[in-house]
Amino acid sequence: MVAGVLVEITNKNVDRIFEYNVPSTLEENVKIGVRVLVPFGKMMLEGFVCTLSDKKETDKELKEVDSIIDTDIVLNDELLNLGKWMQKETVASLMSCYQVMLPKALKAKNGSVVSIRYDTYYKLKNDSIMSEQFSGKQKEIVLLLKEKGLVLRKELFDISSSSLNTLLKHGVLEKIEKEHYRVSYESGKIEKKELTTMQKEAVDAVINSSPKTFLLHGVTGSGKTEVYMEIIDYYLKLGKKSIVLVPEISLTPQMVDRFRRRFGDKIAALHSALSDGEKYDEWRRICRGEASIVIGARSAIFAPLDDIGIIIIDEEHSDSYKQSDPSPRYHARDVAIYRAKTHNCSVVLGSATPSLESMARVQKRVYEYLSLPERINGKSLPEVTIIDMNNAMKKSRGHFSNELISAIDDRLQKKEQVILLLNRRGYSSFVMCKNCGYTFKCPNCDITLTYHKTSNTLRCHYCGYGDKEPSICPSCGEKSLNNLGVGTEKIEEELQKLFPSSKILRMDYDTTSRKGMHEEMISKFKNHEYDILLGTQMVAKGLDFSLVTLVGVINADTSLNIPDFRSSENTFSLLSQVAGRSGRAEKIGSVVIQTYNPDHYSISYVKNHNYFGFYKREMEIRKQLKYPPYYYLCNLRVCGKNQEYLLGEALKIKRSLERNLDSVMILGPSVGNTFKINNTYHYNIILKYKNKDVLYDIFEKIIEHYKTNIKIKIDIDFNPSQIL
Ligand code: ADP
Ligand code: ZN
User: Fold this and answer.
1) Residue with CA closest to ligand 1 atom 18
2) What are the sequence ranges of the domains in the chain?
3) Is the predicted pLDDT of residue 515 greater than 90, yes or no?
4) Which atom of ligand 1 is nearest the CA belonging to 199?
5) CATH of 383-425+500-621, one of 3.40.50.1010, 1.10.10.10, 1.10.3720.10, 3.40.50.300
């Protein structure tokens, strides 16, 4: 038998199918869709079996398939087809499209895969064995197994291995190894709320409709999650399965918890807080049809479920659904809609602040609009106060306005809780010499280093580079280094001085890097072991704490100052989301937003929770500047180590694009604010277009042209979430 195996030629994103002989020992298990190891040059490479036939096509001598990586088929027909579609859509290699569908744990390094765990059981080989034939310990074992049938080795803790082995040797016992999953669930308790009329209407609209895409626009605390669960339950009862995507599940453990309480062991969760082994086990449960509801981050959209009834994407505006790097640069929303067509099912996109793209599709009647405009039980949305820091800083020192200080003070006295957002970790954002103006930059990246006080280091947030902060300026030798800007570490210090007896919990990338830390922090805050939760955008999403009645934003401008066409949209949605954490239970909540741009529309519209006001204003700007959703964007990135050569080639590419595309606007080549990362330079060529089809031919030619050129790498990113 001859297998056509898809292997990736490393780095270049080029794939080819090579033929290999299948040795007779493997013939039974080599199937289309399994992964194999094959010799390639001097290496062993992983590949997918794509074809099987009786004879080879080339006249060359074929090498043999070395081994099979997994015993089960890892990609079924649907996923094999989906991969081909993604390859076309994203101009990526087919191999990378298949690899992205599999959990990381399955990505073999030299063929070694995360191990499967087994439990050992014992049972009698033959029921008619009489216990009278035995005495002592042996009799005890036989009697026990006669009574219980199959028994876990662990339950035989007082019995030595030698007694068991003797009985095994004499053919009395049988030893059985069964797979053991590392994640365990209780069977669901079916916790369920009586839905409000509005919630019911939303549920009915979805389940009574022919397959389509819905946009569920519900304010924070309007009960979207209950709506999702009810829809899922409906399909579950029909024997159908569901996928629920959440932005980054380790950021929303409360959501998984609610699903677990309602659906118990019917769910499988795929998220970054799991170990590789746990992920592998969850994925196998899905493959085997042992889980009906998959909840996970972006890549969970590839869950190998058959018969999907509904796909739900919560916080659909989140840019975490777009994979930026490496390729395939896909958007989970597009994949969801494609899979939904295959399964003939609907997609529900939920958000309090829908992306402009999705709302525009509602207006064009591509998506159907569903709305939950009020919080549950008529609770009002929190009152938002905007503080102009240009004035406030004249009266106060540090980073807190008097208004925010007295609001925090008030909540602490009432024994209520506070969430504070500052979207920048570290102590200060940069260090500058007062004497000569020198700033520290990463030697690998073209990025300012951030000072971290706890470790007394300057660190790069792009590549992780770190160095001790020197005491004198390396440029002029003066002792005048100054910390400027502010990060979560410094705010924590200031806060502790302002409120010495309060308990403060800081939650950011640095404090949550250890496994389980994030969940632990959330449950401690929920139990009121802390008064104030201070953090980066991690604290903004999906959290539901009933005692939180004040949300403060230290500096609303951090996300506004990012040079990206989406920065206003991102600012509006981040502020609306974090504001939504306040006053979710009986007590009315309030929000204090500190900003140096109080009149900026992405901040002022948050005050009245006016999504449509913001939407209208931002759409006008996008129209003027020819940005999405009026035009599509594509970023063609040229990367390499030699800057001069790279620029030359980038200009050539631009000219050839111009010659071949007349209805497309072509900008650049330009350097973004991450011109150099890890010693690699980047030039962006931005294309604005209405029709994607015209691009493919010329893109393919460009990729083909540079395929064997090691000095230059071409990355193509359709609908980039950010242009850096
Ligand atoms: P969202 O996801 O829209 O922010 P949630 O689904 O988290 O809203 O609901 C907000 C709060 O209201 C939660 O504490 C939830 O348990 C509660 N809730 C939701 N639906 C109902 C309902 N029908 N009856 C009572 N409480 C509800
Ligand atoms: Zn760096």
Assistant:
1) 223
2) 2-106, 118-179, 201-276+289-370, 383-425+500-621, 426-486, 632-718
3) no
4) 23
5) 3.40.50.300
Q: Which of 201, 313, 376, 611 has most ligand 1 atoms within 8 Å of its beta carbon, as the pocket-test mutant?
A: 376
Q: Higher model confidence: residue 263 or residue 708?
A: 263
* Model pLDDT for residues 63-73, shown as the tens digit of each residue: 999 998 877 77
Mutation test residue for ligand 1: of 193, 198, 252, 353, the one with most atoms within 8 Å of CB: 193
| Cα 448 to ligand 2 centre (Å) | 9
- 665: number of Cβ within 10 Å: 12
CATH number of 632-718: 3.30.70.600
Tell me whether strands 14-21 and 118-124 are parallel, antiparallel or unpaired.
Answer: unpaired
Ligand 1 and 226: CB distance under 6 A: yes
- Is residue 259 a contact partner of residue 229, using CB atoms and an 8 Å limit? yes
Which protein residue has the closest C-alpha to ligand 1 atom 5?
A: 223
d(CA 427, CA 492) in angstroms, rounded, equals: 9
Q: 383-425+500-621: same fold as 201-276+289-370?
A: yes
pLDDT attached to residue 532 = 96
SS3 annotation, 468-525: ECCCCCCCCCCCCEEEECCCHHHHHHHHHHHCCCCCEEEECCCCCCCCCHHHHHHHHH
- Whose tokens are 């010499």? That residue is 433
pTM of the model: 0.86
> Top-level CATH class of 2-106?
alpha beta
The answer, yes or no, to whether residue 110 has pLDDT greater than 60, is: no
Q: Please give the Cα distance from 653 to 651 (Å, whole number).
A: 5
Identify the residue whose C-alpha is closest to ligand 1 atom 9: 223
Q: Between residues 689 and 135, which one has the greater pLDDT?
A: 689
Residue whose CA is at the smallest distance from ligand 1 atom 15: 223
CB 264 within 8 A of CB 189: yes
Q: Is the CB of 374 under 6 A from ligand 1?
A: no
Q: Which ligand is nearest to the CA of 465?
A: 2
State the pLDDT at residue 612: 97
Distance from the alpha carbon of residue 707 to the mean position of ligand 1, in angstroms:
53
pLDDT per position as a tens digit, 377-425? 788 889 999 999 888 777 777 889 999 999 999 999 999 999 999 877 6
CA-to-CA dists, residue 153 to 118, 134, 146, 156, angstroms: 11, 20, 15, 5
> Does CATH place domain 201-276+289-370 in 3.40.50.300?
yes
Give the residue-averaged pLDDT of 5-22: 79
- Note the pLDDT tens digit of each residue in 651-709: 999 999 999 998 899 988 887 666 777 788 888 898 999 999 999 999 999 998 998 88
Q: Is 225 in the pocket of ligand 1 (CB under 6 A)?
A: yes
